[in-house]
Amino acid sequence: MTVKKSDLVNLLADATGMSKKEVEVIVNGLLYQIIEALQNGDRVEIRGFGSFYAKERMPRKIVNPKTGREMDVDHRFVPVFKPAKFFKESVNQKLLQKAKKGEDA
Q1: What is the pLDDT of residues 43-53, one digit of tens each?
Q2: Quick one: CATH architecture of 47-105?
Q3: Is it the case that residue 33 has pLDDT exceeding 80?
């Protein structure tokens, strides 16, 4: 299942008692501020969750697997998310438990 932004807005509205419109403005504002910070070359760190930053990629040559043609990829910056240690460990533990329950059934 994929959780969409609208699903997050509904969950947060239910959890906080705020209206969906208010929560949507906050979520959009948060996402906008993260994008804005990365565009300025800044790093965004949310303790216990993770960090967003822009990573520099140097120019390189690639081969298109469909056509076999060699192509150049320009120098660029790409947004990256690095989850916090607790975040990675908790996701891993929960999914391992879920997988184990599926094997036992």
Answers
A1: 999 999 999 99
A2: Irregular (4.10)
A3: yes
